[in-house]
Amino acid sequence: MALRRVLGLGGCRLSRSFCSKPPLPPELLEGLRAVVGGPNVSTAMAVREQHGHDESMHMCAPPDAVVWPQSVGQVQELAELCHRHRVPMVPFGTGTGLEGGVNAVQGGVSFDLSRMDAITELSLEDFSVMVEPGVTRKALNNHLRGTGLWFPVDPGADASLCGMAATGASGTNAVRYGTMRPNVLNLRVVLPDGRLLHTAGPGRQARKRAAGYDLTSLFVGSEGTLGFLTQATLRLHPLPETAAATIATFPTVRAAVACTVQVLQAAVPVARIEFLDEVMANACSRFSGVDLPAAPTLLLELHGSRRGLTEQQQQTEEIVRLNGGSELSWAEGPEERGRLWAMRHSAWYASLALRPGCQGYSTDVCVPISRLPDVVVETKQDLQDSGLTGPMVGHVGDGNFHCLLLFNSQDPAEAQRVHAFTQRLGRRALAAGGTCTGEHGVGLGKRALLLEELGQEGLDTLRCIKAALDPHNLMNPGKVL
């Protein structure tokens, strides 16, 4: 119980406030079943618990019911019903979030959108595609196989693409191809009262626009608090002619991060540049069976033409050498590169294996690239001084890094150290001119830091936007604000 008191985290147990809440009105449940059919509405406890948490360690908060709409019209009808009865609504995609974004902290109805999985309006000439919320990142790229195009935003998990838009997801390729925000061209949104909004206008997919407020960017990163994202028009990218990946190890954390900064300053068009500290490198080596030294490590990947790639490799090798890095051996085959990135994507599970039986808590920050070496080194020292196990990994090409904190949930002193460390980390990023979250979102855990980041005026402005679109606070209440 100590962990829940200190961090508000825990397993899927019902809180007293949830157990004492009145049930949903019978007429609402009847209305939900009339819209989607009885089999597509569930009040079973196991189903509700499944939809009451994501991959984070925030305490499970089950909804009162779960519905599975299969069309945008059904989402509109369901939203209008909930709005009429003043019942909270929580969007649910794949449940792979890391900040408690799907937890139904005020009960209500969870909208599981996974059965809306159409891929439509693929335009090879315009490099765009429309996807419904049940389409995942891997499903889209499998659909695109053979077209010469792909969708490169890769947060690691096979998340739903509309869920990735809702959280403003990022990932290993963001340094070259950007985060979700510049890769979303239009969104079809069901507002809390059931009205339908196309953020860039119906059917529009221009690469840039200066027509009015940027409504698309408003909903990207809104974490389900403004409406249901029922379709996303995404920007696609051509597959590179060739690619090469490598591993570089360094004598110190500062040398590895400084090398990252210099690679970017030299304008090497790197596609991925990922950092592992020595703890994470050792964990990944043991978990994935890849022979990595226990040393600060960079994983790099270059994309381009054959001629251009050779020049980029030479530049990268020189910069690595100047920072005391190891000799580089390049992997160009897809299978070998695939094994390398599978190891990186398994970092969370590799971390958990360091302390079997313990729990993990992932947090992220993002800082200006010039401040990254100092902030990473200070954070590393803070981890050691705190006596915490917290392997570090990051998309350092964007100034974004994570600490994966492992601790005994029954040890109140360790739980308190975790809480204190995460607050210091967030404030360290803010002091460096950065943000308290680069890609996980605010969710439940970073609302106080958001106030410090934006100031009272900024937070009041967010509240005004929220009140304009959701005056009864029904969309995913208790998150962000």
What does this structure look like?
The chain is of the alpha+beta class. It is 38% helix and 18% strand. It is built from 18 helices and 17 strands. The protein has a six-stranded antiparallel beta sheet, sandwiched between helices. A hairpin with a 4-residue loop joins β5 and β6. α11 packs antiparallel against α13, α11 runs antiparallel to α16 and α16 packs antiparallel against α17.
Overall mean pLDDT score?
92
**Strand composition percent:** 15-25%
Strand order of the largest sheet: 12-14-13-16-17-15
Characterize the main sheet: 6 strands, antiparallel
Parts with pLDDT < 50 across at least 5 consecutive residues: 1-20
The total of beta strands comes to 17
Radius of gyration: 23 Å
The number of helical runs is 18
Q: Which bin fits the share of residues in helices?
A: 25-40%
Taken from the alpha-carbon principal axes, the silhouette is globular
Question: Which structural class do the helices and strands define?
Answer: alpha+beta
Terminal residue distance: 26 Å
